[in-house]
Amino acid sequence: MPTLTMQSIADLTQVRREVVSVWRSRSTGSEHPFPPRLSADELLFDAGEIAAWLDVTGRGNNPEAPLEVLLHSSQFEQLREDLDAASTLLLVHDLVGGPLATLTAGEVLAGTAAYELGALVAREHLAELLERTALVRAIDELAEAAFSGRGLLDRLITSFARPDGPWAGEALTPAGTSVILEVLRGLLDQAAFRLDPQGRGGLLLTTALSALLSDELQPAFGLDSQEGQDTVTRAAMRMLAAHAGPDAVGPVDDGTPHLALFQHQDVQDPHAFFEQLESVLLDLGPRDAAVVIGPCELLVDGIGDEQVRATRHRLLLPTPQSPAPLRYVARLPKGLSRFGGRRRLAMWVFGTAAPHAGTDWTVYGEHADTPLDASSRAAIAADVTAALTGGTALTAHAFLRSTRLATPALLRRRDLVLTPFSRPQRSGGESLARLWELDDGLLGQSLTLGATGEDGTDPTLAWADALDGFAREIRGTRLTSDVIGAPAAGSVGVIGPQEVREPQRLGERAIDRLVLEKVAARSTFTAPGDVVFTAEGGAAAFVDTTGGHVLQAPVRALRCLPEPRRERVLHPQALAADIAGQKGRDRRTWRLRTIPAEAVPALDAAALRLQERRAQLRRQLSTLDHLEDELIQAVAAGTLAATVTTPTKEN
């Protein structure tokens, strides 16, 4: 007898489990009480009674729930216990196009004779499987609930990505799956690739793509039908065969261009990860390509372990044995990993593309804060397709937060995603000429500048590295609007998001110190030189030159820490400019410029002169505003008569 648990009822009706508990308690004594549980020891319910109750009451968010009840019952779970037999019968059910219990073994064999099934269906054992009447009957009943044997096989394979499933470690969120599938569809539209999934992560994405595509758009799948494969892989192969046809699933064919799909999220051994990836890349030919999805810390971030970093470097450098270069590298949007917590993913794409300007190039991108809407997904897919196409596509395509760089210049870096501040800078002579052009004598009076003649280096470091001895982060305090008022004796100024975005408003709001002690006794005041910033609604920052303010959340501050032994340090003015120039709110993707420690006094002196000049210009602007207002008011009131003075010529 098929049964349901409380959680399976919640999944069936698309509600939370607590809602089912409410249905049980509140329907007691009503005209349609919730069905009783089958035993006092377990919360199990008869599937038929639940279906009848849902049909009468219409509870839940799934109007098809009474028809789909078996798909969430113990009868469906039993299929996972005998995966080989169940997936084989489901493929046969789809091929013959109807219930199996009404057919004889001879009729089933005759109905599948036209297909080259290979190891997908062992014909010598098929007759034995058809004699298992209980399993065949369950297959027919569940297939009817799923509308077809293929639909039931899809559900069976999808269950592998559940928390208790064999593919849980590689599972993506629905939005994450959509991003990757959009990229794969774009590449398959570009060329007639055979899709070769690698490992559990590759199979998960391949089956999701096959379920999405219509029959006429299904690619061929390169999978060896070997008896030594595990039952999960064989079940996935049968699902692909149901969609693309048995002839489309088989051993790899060297004569057909193939797209290798490698995804591995939960990496325990980085060396083993790169070894697996190297074997995939070594199989690539001139017309082949590969898509790799993995953790950011291995694919794009700087790697602290020198051995692991060297392994990644050797893997990416094109060689005669592995000629396919890295064409696209990007940090992917956050929120892609389903069960990986805050795990961040990145993507590599390898392939041989049309040459461009005689250089070896790679497109790099930063999508960490890109939204996961349909237009953004399509734009990312178009970026990848253009990168793998090469040639004129590199200049004709408008990349989304991506651009191209010479591959050797990218691979020499410790991390592989660039920011505006890490791109090649001007030479010292060019910068000096530019400063002379802009300066009207202000800096020349206090600084001596000269070109060093050295090549520029990447002066940036990641946000996490900045908090490791370079700066201290100060959190803001949650202050409600009712405790904030106008400045008065005994009050302290407040810096909130509005002050960060408009520093000229600083001093308009304050909070009484006694009130502050009551509502937030542990508040930390700013010090002169603190960089106050917010990421909400777009990054903004400024340097608090006076200090003594309280921060209103979500505003925070960074306090640069002096370290005599460091050759490079953070400087408030550069730090404020870098934070204000960030494109997204995810601080883990931010990069901040450091400066040589010996240059701090010069920058401090320049900052002081520039601050004084800004204040002078603001006073002049304020005077001009008052002048214009007074002139207009007097002329309008008639208290002054104004005429244009004709200039006199000088002899």
Notes on the structure:
The protein is α/β, with parallel strands linked by helices and 651 residues long. The protein is 41% helix and 14% strand. It is built from 25 helices and 22 strands. The strands form 7 sheets. Strands 3-6-7-9-8-10-11 form a 7-stranded mixed β-sheet, sandwiched between helices. Helix 1 (6-13) packs across helix 2 and helix 12 (199-212) runs parallel beside helix 13. It is globular. The termini are far apart. The model is unreliable at 420-425 (pLDDT under 50).
Layout of helices and strands:
Layout: E1 3-5, H1 6-13, H2 17-26, E2 44-46, H3 47-57, H4 65-68, H5 74-81, H6 83-96, H7 105-111, H8 123-130, H9 133-145, H10 149-158, H11 174-190, E3 194-198, H12 199-212, E4 221-222, H13 231-244, E5 249-250, E6 258-263, H14 270-282, E7 289-295, H15 296-299, H16 306-316, E8 326-331, E9 345-351, E10 361-366, H17 374-389, H18 393-396, E11 402-406, H19 407-411, H20 428-438, E12 460-462, H21 463-466, E13 471-474, E14 491-495, H22 497-501, E15 510-512, H23 513-519, E16 530-534, E17 540-544, E18 550-551, E19 556-560, E20 568-569, H24 572-580, E21 591-593, E22 595-596, H25 600-637
Parallel strand pairs: 3-6, 4-5, 6-7, 8-10, 14-18
Antiparallel strand pairs: 1-2, 7-9, 8-9, 10-11, 12-21, 13-19, 14-15, 16-17, 16-19, 20-22
Helix pairs in contact: 1-2, 6-9, 6-10, 6-13, 9-10, 10-13, 11-17, 12-13, 14-16
The main sheet comes to: 7 strands, mixed
Strand line-up across the major sheet: 3-6-7-9-8-10-11
Into which percent range does the helicity of residues fall?
40-55%
Shape: globular
Low-confidence stretches: 420-425
DSSP helix count? Answer: 25
The fraction of residues in strands falls at 5-15%
Q: Report the count of strand segments.
A: 22
Average of the residue pLDDT scores: 86
Radius of gyration: 33 Å
Separation of termini? 116 Å
Structural class: alpha/beta
